[in-house]
Design brief:
By secondary structure, the protein is of the alpha+beta class. It folds into 2 domains: 123 residues, 3-Layer(aba) Sandwich (Trna Endonuclease, Chain: A, domain 1); 75 residues, no CATH class. It contains 8 helices and 12 strands. The strands form 4 sheets. A 4-stranded mixed sheet has the order 4-7-8-9. Strands 1-5-6 form a 3-stranded antiparallel sheet, with helices on one face. Helix 1 crosses helix 5. It is elongated and about 70 Å long. The protein starts with a strand and ends in a 7-residue tail after the last strand. Pfam families: Tn7_TnsA-like_N. Keywords: Endonuclease, Hydrolase, Nuclease.
Length: 210
């Protein structure tokens, strides 16, 4: 396994820069589908860290050595370390790729307990989840106002998003505080449905992000 050097600029493919708050550094992606997957990882509390295109592996096909670089390596609190390949479903369905990933799955199973996982848009784009996370991501790095921190114990257990905004205004909190609360999972809601003023929110008392 050889570490792969990822060029910041490529004549063949323009790489997408994604700033990872979880890793406190930039990660490079080759597609918007990969960016969406990283966004999901940013909001998964059990994911410790991850890196894109971490290393190249050599595998044997018909007596010839081929090189393969997985899209992701992920360090998880409970699942340990595992690799992911992110591809559109129609590409994974080709006979060539079916044979390729059958060989790779067996090869990775020998070096990792969790092996190589294949992830498609079906696992990533579930309803409005990605659209909601894009809206929340910036606020995840912000800090609640001192006023909001002082009155957090008064937050209702269940409220609408519109009601949370009104609650923040009545308690002289900062205008960003409602979004910061959502971004840091102090309130949860159905991410598959687009956030709206009437979205029902449930207080998450186990959140440790703030």
């Amino acid at each position: 396994m050889k570490p792969r050097k990822i060029p910041r600029h490529s004549k063949v493919m323009a790489r997408i820069h994604f700033h990872s708050q979880k890793n406190d550094s930039t990660r490079f992606c080759d597609s918007e589908l990969e960016v969406a997957r990283l966004l999901l990882l940013e909001f998964e509390d059990d994911v410790i860290a991850y890196n894109t295109q971490p290393a190249s592996f050599t595998y044997l096909v018909n007596g010839k050595n081929r090189r393969y670089t997985p899209d992701l390596i992920i360090s998880h609190k409970h699942k340990g370390v595992y690799f992911e390949e992110i591809k559109p479903k129609d590409k994974l369905g080709s006979q060539k790729n079916i044979e390729k990933f059958d060989i790779l799955s067996k090869a990775f199973a020998a070096i990792s307990d969790n092996g190589l996982k294949l992830v498609t848009e079906e696992q990533i784009y579930v309803g409005s989840t990605i659209a909601n996370l894009k809206k929340l991501y910036h606020y995840r790095s912000l800090t609640l106002s001192e006023q909001c921190q002082q009155v957090m114990q008064e937050l209702p257990a269940r409220i609408t998003y519109c009601g949370l905004i009104s609650w923040a205004e009545s308690h002289q909190c900062h205008v960003y505080d409602p979004m910061i609360l959502l971004a840091n999972r102090c309130y949860t809601f159905d991410l598959t449905c687009m956030l709206s003023p009437l979205t029902h929110l449930d207080r998450s008392y186990g959140s440790t992000n703030l």
